[in-house]
Specification:
Layout: E1 8-12, H1 17-33, E2 38-44, H2 49-55, E3 59-63, H3 76-97, E4 101-104, H4 110-119, E5 124-128, H5 135-140, E6 146-149, E7 163-165, H6 181-188, E8 195-200, H7 207-215, H8 217-221, E9 225-230, H9 236-246, E10 251-254, H10 260-266, E11 269-272, H11 276-285, E12 289-291, H12 301-310, E13 316-317, H13 323-335, H14 338-349, H15 356-373
Parallel strand pairs: 1-2, 1-4, 2-3, 4-5, 5-6, 6-7, 8-9, 8-11, 9-10, 11-12, 12-13
């Protein structure tokens, strides 16, 4: 009797937490459905997935791939060389690991791995997180078996018959926050008697959000609120000096928040960038939100993500260029308006798509099962 071989799956992509945390969430859902699955991540060298994925318990291989330079065009010669090297290495990894399927979650490493997989006739699927698909995913979609999306109307980018609306996978533990408030107040050193604003600038930090907070430290200090400020590692040292100088004890500074479940549990209002994963988390947690889209992303997709919520009266949008003057005043005003907070919370909760990781994992295993029957 031939022993049954374990299913092997490669998950490729990364660059930011917006790609990495959904990828890890999909991996955990796959393992939950079949504990015998072997999962290998493929990311970009020197990007945060090379740290975060091993911490989550998974093996990862890095490619030298880098993003194209839109402003300094001559640097793209090096980018092209790295892409060629990445394609060669991706092909080698695929032949050695011999996966049953490859899952692309976006980010630099996704393109060479999925392209090489399609050339080797290995099934691929794509998880498109944004409401606006980038050119790379549009090209890769031609060979993909399925495309998992979070927004309606994506047939303008992808073949309609391949699209499945699943929502975006989110970090574990965010679906039920009701019992975590007391633990959250203790964890962050906060009072249950005061309202809390949580500011998250993405896993790498957000310069304009940080500048807006720094400019308004005195306003926050003199309010009857408490503030959790995730600055990102690049900005923490300066933010620490500014806080120490102002002696603002109601502002709790963190470069990175590992317990986002506790942060969301205590937050009454959230200030955030408008990356797809962040918006999915805000929908699931049902938090009144002020979105400050990053202007430094392809096709300005964060503004499109944010506008999709604003159109449904489910969030407030403050442009990055106006944040310095408007952001904190908007947050403090919202903190005084309980009716508006409830309205935003109710509307954003209606947009939540639950159990996304499990839906994606089941479809992935269905494709593998069908292939093995042939």
């Amino acid at each position: 009797m031939v022993e049954k071989q374990n299913i092997k799956i490669i998950i490729s992509g990364g660059g930011t937490g917006g790609h990495i945390f959904p990828a890890i969430s999909i991996a955990k859902a796959l393992i939950k459905l079949d504990p015998g699955i072997e999962i290998l991540f493929v990311g970009a060298e020197n990007k945060m997935e090379m740290e975060k994925v091993p911490v989550a318990g998974y093996k990862i291989i890095g490619l030298p791939v880098a993003g194209f330079q839109r402003k300094i065009f001559y640097k793209n010669f090096t980018v092209i060389l790295k892409l060629i090297k990445s394609l060669i290495r991706a092909r080698k990894v695929l032949k050695e690991f011999n996966p049953d399927i490859v899952v692309g979650v976006g980010g630099y490493a996704s393109a060479p791995v999925l392209w090489a997989a399609s050339r080797l006739r290995i099934p691929t699927v794509i998880q498109e997180q944004n409401s606006y698909a980038g050119i790379t995913n549009k090209l890769l979609a031609k060979k993909a078996k399925l495309i998992f999306v979070a927004y309606e109307g994506m047939e303008k980018y992808f073949p309609k018959e391949k699209i499945i609306i699943t929502g975006n996978p989110i970090r574990q533990g965010l679906e039920a926050l009701g019992n975590l408030k007391d633990e959250g107040y203790k964890y962050f050193g906060l009072s249950p008697e005061k309202n809390t604003i949580l500011s998250i600038g993405g896993s790498l930090g957000a310069r304009m959000i940080n500048q807006s907070i720094a400019k308004s430290i005195d306003k926050i200090k003199n309010s009857n609120l408490q503030f959790i400020w995730q600055s990102g590692s690049l900005y923490k040292a300066r933010a620490n000096i500014q806080l120490h100088s102002a002696n603002a004890e109601n502002i709790k500074l963190h470069d990175f928040i590992s317990r986002m479940d506790l942060a969301y549990a205590v937050a009454d209002i959230v200030i955030s960038r408008a990356g797809a994963s962040s918006i999915s988390e805000l929908c699931i947690t049902g938090k009144p939100s002020i979105l400050v889209p990053s202007p430094n992303v392809a096709e300005d997709h964060q503004t499109k993500n944010a506008q999709a919520l604003v159109d449904k009266n489910a969030a407030i949008l403050v442009a990055d260029s106006e944040a310095n003057d408007k952001l904190i005043d908007t947050a403090l005003q919202l903190a005084k308006d309980g009716t508006r907070q409830k309205e935003l919370a109710d509307n954003i909760s209606k947009l939540a798509l639950h159990n996304s990781s499990e839906k994606i994992a089941k479809k992935i295993l269905e494709i593998v099962s069908e292939n093995k029957k042939r």
